[in-house]
Inverse folding.
């Protein structure tokens, strides 16, 4: 009856002084009736039905039901030291601040000056550099008062675009983080009649993947009176409202009781993006933390699993706010330039493979389509004490004694070394020689050389254990770290020296780590090596016990993707690559065999059965690698796959590359060298990369030995891939010849590398 906000403030004070009860001014203004006041005086904390909720109620407001009634979530208890949590420093004891009516301006001013939200000072503070934000920076993303003018739908689209997904795939994310990539916060838009040019009034659902608005009803509306009293002037001038609503079904099965917290965090990130987009889009935004939720639920068709999180009132930005917004964010502080996308050159390679004493012999074996697989030689079986089932694989021919005295290793010490190390030392030496380098030439002018060795078996250590059980003294040092460390010591190198074991993807993981070390300046040259030798019967026994060994049905081993003999043929190998940054290699006149453009290492996560993930994680991992390097899958003209012989994993890999290359326009050859030399496990990636480098040198793709009875798990009708059965010319597509080399570890770790033709840099 003509009461003003001042009158209501006085009434609230009188009620508190006489009866000790708080009746917030917002309640008095929203419904100034005896019933509303009586409900509050009787102890009810929730406003009567049909009124706006107070800020106090908003603190615990949760899910909006079909009738708009909020559920409430209890706050999680704070862990105490007795609960196992680390004790926290005691906070200074302070008095609780007095209650303040929002519309009592003087009380509000005194409350703000008290800074009760800050921790009281407890000692000297350390100043920080960087300076404070400017008023221009604050205005860029500050809340803006709305203007009563018409809004254009294109401007509204420019505002909402910051919430769109980056692509149409399920794994494409957004500019804001979401717990578990659930993206369970929905976006709704309410448009006032005649307020947005190009858009009818009513309710819309914003779908972020295609960046579209879907109409929910042209008669849907939230009246201005549904807003909290002090928001009503802004709501009356708004052309549209954006509401962020959590869908608990999209996150609660994963996060349980933590779901409301994560929904609130996600909505906060989204709101920051919308605030930041005001000036670029020309749309003023005013956040709304509360309104009568029954009206919102009715307008948007919300159900009991929906949670109102935040609203935004939108209108055209005032012309005065459009000019000279200033820099919205600080630029990053100067930092040493790290060429994280710098290309890496392979300038040297050496190794031994079954039936091939070096890279040139390996090329002849591959290009002629020959297989070096054979039964385990009787002498080797006797030396191992192997009495299990027949084993077929690729075995290295016995090598004569190796003189390691030039590397300061005596013959007696050499006899005690891990046989894998006795192979690695000369292989690395040959790799340097073929690159035109010596150990000392790589360290001139302070150069550092990193060593990254891939291996996965401890056969030599098991042999020593057998001796110990017989009573012999154990004097060998045979940890996997010994391999790179001994190489670094023998050649006098002081860069990183790492042993890498991610199972069958170890070599490509080692390559990935070496490339990152070169780009980060941790080393100036890198030796990447892989080795796999069978020197203990338990090596074969474990593979046989797990059913991983292929048993050929005929007289000769089957080829790749063999249905009759699933499993892999073991392979022995040693290989080494010398890597340098491409600009350094060109400057020094090194022979460049190929350019490593990018690499990636990742795990499949919890999808599928352990050790047998589906194709989707592999496709996503490959896309991330290519996207991160700015490479289009359409430029890939060859794939060197793992295809080790594990039926499900091989089929999943084939399907992943078929999906990756779906828009290629022509079938891409996918090959594997495993039917030629066997699966050398941790060392296999070195052979795969070397095969690609040899194909680049000769301009031809070697044939892949495909099984006469190919696995039905593979979609052989797919038009995006084919397995080359004969030598073919390697033709470039959309640029230089480019290959993706892939490896899959039995534990789910992927390794990928992109190899490109050196294009005249050799």
């Amino acid at each position: 009856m003509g009461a003003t906000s001042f009158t209501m403030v006085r009434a609230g004070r009188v009620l508190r002084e006489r009866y000790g009860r708080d009746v917030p001014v917002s309640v008095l203004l929203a419904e100034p009736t005896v019933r509303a006041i009586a409900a509050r005086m009787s102890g009810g904390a929730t406003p009567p039905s049909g009124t706006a909720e107070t800020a106090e109620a908003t603190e615990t407001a949760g899910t909006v039901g079909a009738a708009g009634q909020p559920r409430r979530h209890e706050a999680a208890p704070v862990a105490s030291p007795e609960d196992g949590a680390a004790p926290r420093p005691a906070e200074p004891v302070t008095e609780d601040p007095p209650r303040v009516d929002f519309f009592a301006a003087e009380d509000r001013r005194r409350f703000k000056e008290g800074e009760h939200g800050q921790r009281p000072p407890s000692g000297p503070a350390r100043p920080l550099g960087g300076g404070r934000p400017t008023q221009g920076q604050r205005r860029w993303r500050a809340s803006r008062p709305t203007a009563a003018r018409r809004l254009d739908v294109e401007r509204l689209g420019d505002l909402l675009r910051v919430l769109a997904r980056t692509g149409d795939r399920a794994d494409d994310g957004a500019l804001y983080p979401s717990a578990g990539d659930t993206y369970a916060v929905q976006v709704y838009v309410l448009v006032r009649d005649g307020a947005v040019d190009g858009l009818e009034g009513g309710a819309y659902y914003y779908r972020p993947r295609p960046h579209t608005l879907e109409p929910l009803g042209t008669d849907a509306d939230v009246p201005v009176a549904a807003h909290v009293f002090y928001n009503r002037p802004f709501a009356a001038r708004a052309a549209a409202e954006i509401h962020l609503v959590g869908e608990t079904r999209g996150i609660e099965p994963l996060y349980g009781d933590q779901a409301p917290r994560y929904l609130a965090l996600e909505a906060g990130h989204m709101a920051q993006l919308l605030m930041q987009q005001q000036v670029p889009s020309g749309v003023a935004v005013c956040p709304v933390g509360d309104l009568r939720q029954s009206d919102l639920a009715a307008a948007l068709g919300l159900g009991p699993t929906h949670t109102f999180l935040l609203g935004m009132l939108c209108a055209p930005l005032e012309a005065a706010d459009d000019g000279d917004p200033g820099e919205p964010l600080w630029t990053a502080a100067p930092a040493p330039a790290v060429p994280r996308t710098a290309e890496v050159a392979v300038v040297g390679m050496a190794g031994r493979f079954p039936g091939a004493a070096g890279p040139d012999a390996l090329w002849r074996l591959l290009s002629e389509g020959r297989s070096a697989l054979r039964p385990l030689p009787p002498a080797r079986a006797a030396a191992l004490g192997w009495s299990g089932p027949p084993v077929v694989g690729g075995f290295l021919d016995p090598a004569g004694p190796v003189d390691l005295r030039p590397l300061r290793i005596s013959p007696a010490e050499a006899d005690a070394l891990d046989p894998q190390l006795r192979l690695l030392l000369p292989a690395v030496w040959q790799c340097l020689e073929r690159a035109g380098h010596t150990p000392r030439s790589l360290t001139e002018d302070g150069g550092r050389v990193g060593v990254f060795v891939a291996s996965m078996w401890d056969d030599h250590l098991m042999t020593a254990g057998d001796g110990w059980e017989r009573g012999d003294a154990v004097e060998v040092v045979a940890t996997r770290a010994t391999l790179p460390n001994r190489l670094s010591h023998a050649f006098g190198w002081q860069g990183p020296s790492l042993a890498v074991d991610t199972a069958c993807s170890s070599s490509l993981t080692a390559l990935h780590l070496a490339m990152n070390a070169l780009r980060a300046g941790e080393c100036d040259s890198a030796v990447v090596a892989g080795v796999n030798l069978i020197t203990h019967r338990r090596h074969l026994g474990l593979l046989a016990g797990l059913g991983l060994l292929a048993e050929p049905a005929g007289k000769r081993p089957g080829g790749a993707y063999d249905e009759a003999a699933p499993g892999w043929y073991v392979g022995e190998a040693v290989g080494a690559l010398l890597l340098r940054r491409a600009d350094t290699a060109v400057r020094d006149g090194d022979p460049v065999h190929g350019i490593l453009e990018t690499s990636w290492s990742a795990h499949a996560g919890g999808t599928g059965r352990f050790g047998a993930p589906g194709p989707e994680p592999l496709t996503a991992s490959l896309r991330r690698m290519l996207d991160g390097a700015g490479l289009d899958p359409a430029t890939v003209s060859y794939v060197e796959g793992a295809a080790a012989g594990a039926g499900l994993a091989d089929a999943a890999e084939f399907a992943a590359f078929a999906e990756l290359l779906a828009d290629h326009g022509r079938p891409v050859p996918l090959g594997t060298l495993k039917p030629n030399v066997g699966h050398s496990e941790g060392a296999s990636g070195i052979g795969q990369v070397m095969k690609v480098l040899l194909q680049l040198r000769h301009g031809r793709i070697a044939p892949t030995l495909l099984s006469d009875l190919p696995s039905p798990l593979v979609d052989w009708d797919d038009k995006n891939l084919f397995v080359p059965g004969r030598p073919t010319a390697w033709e470039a597509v959309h640029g230089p010849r480019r290959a993706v080399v892939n490896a899959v570890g039995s534990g789910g770790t992927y390794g990928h590398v992109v190899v490109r033709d050196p294009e005249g840099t050799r």
